[in-house]
Design brief:
By secondary structure, the chain is α+β, with helices and mostly antiparallel strands. It contains five helices and six strands. Strand 4 and strand 5 form a beta hairpin.
Length: 184
């Protein structure tokens, strides 16, 4: 064959294929091929939908993680400030009546400082948990001593050495308590 004939045959070939693609499949080979393409399409569609769902789940989990991180980011800082709150409370507890009369303005200033600290704690979700008189909860309190008291049920908190605090419903610091033993 000459080069011209080869070129002429190559030019005609695409036209013949185009005509056959536009025809409706009549034989079984073309029907099988169409069914295989439909099955492959369904598999790819299913794969795409699964990948899309996984991407959406990952996006949702990341958003939740960001919210959790921002919600509890100040936990370590707040935990350090709890000792300040404890010291303010100890200072106010140590004041007797005579000192209150002599240093009234100073004591009032300490009380206002404590109140402001608790206001800031509340603003950031830090709350003091009241444990006195309640039954011991191992998730929230730590027992440092047990005392005999037959009038109260066993495990009742009778003294609080260190207060418990939570931050956004998560325990920031557990309480150190004294509980009863030997009761009902």
């Amino acid at each position: 064959m000459t080069d011209k004939k080869k070129k002429h045959e190559q030019e005609e070939l695409p036209e013949e294929k185009t005509e056959s693609l536009n025809e409706v499949p009549e034989n079984t080979e073309e029907t099988v091929s169409l069914a295989a393409l439909q099955e492959e399409y369904n598999k790819l569609k299913d794969s795409f939908l699964r990948a899309y769902a996984e991407a959406e789940n990952t996006k949702r989990r990341c958003q939740q993680e960001l919210e959790k991180n921002s919600k509890y980011a100040i936990s370590s800082f707040a935990k350090e400030l709890l000792s300040v709150a404890d010291n303010l409370q100890r200072a106010l507890s140590a004041v007797d009546e005579q000192t209150r009369e002599n240093c009234g303005a100073f004591i009032e200033g300490v009380e206002m400082t404590q109140k402001e600290l608790f206001h800031v704690f509340e603003k950031f979700g830090v709350k003091k948990v009241d444990c006195m008189g309640k039954v011991f909860d191992p998730n929230l309190e730590r027992v440092v001593q047990e005392v005999e008291d037959t009038e109260k049920p066993a495990g009742t908190i009778v003294a609080e050495l260190q207060s418990a605090y939570t931050i956004n419903d998560r325990i920031l610091r557990e309480a150190m308590v004294i509980v009863t033993k030997g009761g009902k």
